Amino acid sequence: MIKITKPGLLTSVQDFGRYGYQKYGVIASGVMDSTAHRIANLLVGNDENEATLELTLLGPDMEFSEDTLISICGGNLSPSINGKRVKLWRSVLVKAGSKLKFGGCKTGCRAYLAVAGGFVLPEIMDSKSTYIRAGIGGFNGKPLQADDELTLGEPSEFAAQITEVLAAELDGQKFAEMQWTIASDFTSTAVSKPKVRVMKGRQYDWFTQDSQMKLFTESFDVTSQSDRMGYRLKGPELQLEKEQEMLSEAVNFGTIQVPSEGNPIVLLADRQTTGGYPKIGQIATVDLPIMAQLKPGDKVQFTEVSHEVAQQLYLDREKQIHQLKQGISLKIKQESK
Amino acid sequence: MEFKLQPLGDNSVIIELGEDISRDIQQKVNKVSSFLEKKSFDWVIEYVPGFTTVAVFYDPCKIETNTLPYEQVCEKLSAHLEKLDVEQGAEPRVVEIPVCYGGEFGPDLEEVAERNELTPEEVIDIHSNGEYIVYMIGFAPGFPYIGGMDERIAAPRRKNPRLKIPAGSVGIAGKQTGVYPIETPGGWQLIGKTPRKLFLPEGDTPSLLQAGDQIKFVPITEEEFQKWEENKND
Asked: Are A197 and A303 in contact (CB under 8 A)?
């Protein structure tokens, strides 16, 4: 079991999200940075979709009541166990009675904490993701609070092998980290000068040429009105050529829509299912983790990518993650011999 | 059936079926939705109807092709959509929504009446005798975009939106009427409240209403409202 002793700024249970229910107006929810979430799960022998804890800027404090295999991936929120720094992007075996804390946010905005076996929580509409506004999913439909106790599921056989490797290195310590880590292609989402690839949106042609050009040449600030639902950006004002009526239709994770005052909004994990503002752009799926790791005050630059290239990047990324999964499995096999 | 296809990103395609809000186009949207529902392609993650569109979200990795998955998706969809016949539209499902009008449930009923030079009873009469159609579900879980309200009871949004509108509230905003499935802030003029739940997170389908449904608002008394509430708790 894990007991939360301090909740942090916003700590919630998330998996890939709720799909198949957007036609009923139920938002998808789910993790903001799916790459970090997936890798965290792979490092503890979980299914990629198992729920993790999404930690935001100021992480929580927690206590482990049993030996637990964990992994923390994504932004660096300065995790430490009993006062000693813990590395990101690794399998970590934590002894019962240990205390995990997070300090300040050094890079990125969100970290993902996976535990072997996942969390024992009911699935609402096929997902454990927390939908805060409707009060459903996750842990009682809410972000985690102090004194919440999370029950852990049964670790996989693979998790048991990882645990065995790490147990041999414990040597009386409170925790042991794996010697090896993940290739930097996956871990470099929290970057200082982020460039995010964007496809033209469905109403791109509605905007003035000047606005079309500025979208891809100037940088935008992430304002304080930014959360899991969407990021409000501030930069050059994006204007329509002429007022046009737009009927509500589906939106996507990473849709960049522009209300009439001209400041774009990037729709993210907790976006509404449909929207009625013109869409100037759509972020390539592979670059959503970069967007998700931005915090208020950061700057972002959009660069244009074609729909064809974006889809090819998508396929390539899936192949890489598949290879990574096999790589992890091979490594553990070698070490447990 | 005539349609246009356009990407909504690298994992989705939008099927455009027209340009205006109308019953005809709504029926096309319905037809395409029910086709996707029945066909359940293994590469389709979900579909989301809009006023004149249906978005299809898919898994690019589940499409076997030497070309771009998007091209295959368009080919597969087109082959079926071309054959869809709009004429054979199914009769819409009729859903009754009991409404207790006025009083504490509908604090703005009098204002809506005054603004339109009607009595509150006339507003209730007009509202509950309308023929309504659900164009789409969006904005909030189970929230129906409803068309067909009589313009004689139209009323602009409140200047000061309420911070909390209770779930079940029936309101008017401009020429639209709607029902709030969950408690939200909002500027609609509230004329009544239904004891029926529109958002059912534990149900097989989490929304009482679906795009294409016909709605009948049925006036009920406060006693009947209480009875509904009691039965719900059984």
From this structure: yes
Does residue A189 sit within a domain? no
The reply to whether B91 touches chain A by the CB within 8 Å rule is no
Indicate where chain B has its CATH 2.40.100.10 domain(s).
94-232
The SS3 of residue A196 is: strand
Residues A14 and A116 in one domain: yes
- Residue B161 touches partner A, C-beta closer than 8 Å: no
CATH for A280: 2.40.100.10
Domain containing A262 equals 195-305
Residues of chain A with confidence (pLDDT) below 70: 189-190
The helices-and-strands tally (H runs, E runs) of chain A is 6, 21
Residues in B closer than 8 angstroms to A281, CB to CB, are none
B201 and A308 in contact by Cβ < 8 A?
no
ipTM: 0.96
For residue B34, the chain A residue with the least C-alpha distance is: A23
**Are A210 and A118 within one domain?**
no
Which candidate from A22, A254, A315 shows the least CB-CB separation from B60? A315
Nearest to A119 by CA among A174, A46, A58: A46
A157 lies in some domain = yes
What residue spans in chain B does CATH classification 3.30.1360.40 cover? 4-81
> Does the B4-81 domain belong in CATH 3.30.1360.40?
yes
The whole-angstrom separation of Cα A152 and Cα A255 is 35
CB contact under 8 Å between A250 and B142, yes or no, is no
pLDDT in tens, B61-91: 999 888 899 999 999 999 999 999 877 667 8
Yes or no, beta carbons of B141 and A27 under 8 Å apart? yes
Question: In Å, what is the CA distance from A38 to each residue of A16, A23, A254, B82?
Answer: 9, 26, 19, 39
Domain B94-232 has CATH 2.40.100.10: yes
Q: Is the pTM of this model over 0.90?
A: yes
Residue A117 DSSP label: T
The Cα–Cα gap between B33 and B56 comes to 10
The helix or strand, by DSSP H or E, that contains position A321, with its residue range, turns out to be helix A307-336
Give the CA radius of gyration of chain B: 20
Using a CB–CB cutoff of 8 Å, tell me whether A282 touches chain B.
Answer: yes
